[in-house]
Specification:
By secondary structure, the chain is mostly beta strands. It is built from two helices and 18 strands. A hairpin with a 2-residue loop joins strand 12 and strand 13. The protein is elongated, with a radius of gyration of 20 Å. The N and C termini lie far apart (55 Å).
């Protein structure tokens, strides 16, 4: 099957990833290429577009590389399509996050202090700010640094995501376990949360709750 080598640039990616060479099938559609880029770099499930470098008109989503006449050496620009955002987004620390279906309705409550952390966006990272990154604190959904046992929690310890009203917990740190109701969660594993579930990160215990739901 014929393949072509494209250069893809994007300001949405980290500095070291902003210019990529990609070998793609000539019969790959623009839509499929956008999805491959989004998944490769774990980007928000929102609207994106590809344009030829130096042009403003987005490439038609359902046309293939071959139909567009693209050849090896072509340079494409990958960017957010402001007219096609599929999900409401939240800007935090200079980055975009997907809003949960009902922001603030679900929250985590710390056991000893009673402090509540509403879940407004996803992935909702549980952890501590990194002093080397000024925007890190703003991007944390659950910043435990002010809690008595906050220092026992990793900077990116765990995260919560939501899909269709169901919330899922994932571990992010292999050396510092995340426990759900006393059971460790393996890296790469997602566990559905129910009201009353207890999440333990370091020595901090957080209870998952949903307004209006009985535990």
């Amino acid at each position: 099957m014929d393949r072509i080598i494209l250069t893809i640039t994007s300001d949405l990616l980290d500095d070291e990833d902003r210019r990529q060479e990609a070998s793609v099938r000539a019969n790959l559609t623009v839509r499929a290429l956008i999805e491959e880029i989004r998944r490769e770099f774990n980007l928000l499930d929102a609207g994106y577009r590809l344009t030829l470098h130096g042009q403003q008109q987005p490439l038609p989503l359902d046309q293939t590389m071959e139909q567009l006449g693209l050849q090896t050496g072509a340079e494409l620009v990958f960017e957010r399509d402001r007219h096609r955002l599929q999900e409401r987004v939240v800007a935090r620390g200079g980055q975009y996050f997907q809003a949960v279906t009902k922001p603030g309705r679900a929250y985590l409550q710390e056991a000893s202090s009673g402090k509540a952390f509403p879940l407004e966006w996803q992935p909702a990272v549980i952890g501590r700010p990194d002093a080397a990154s000024p925007d890190a604190a703003e991007m944390l959904a659950v910043d435990v640094s002010a809690l008595a046992e906050g220092r026992t929690v990793s900077r990116r310890h765990a995260q919560i995501s939501e899909r269709g009203g169901t919330y899922y917990l994932e571990a992010l740190n292999e050396r510092n376990p995340t426990l759900l109701n006393g059971q460790a969660i393996r890296l790469g594993e997602k566990r559905a949360l129910s009201p009353g579930d207890v999440i333990r990160v370091g020595l901090v215990e957080l209870t998952f709750a949903v307004q209006g739901a009985s535990s």
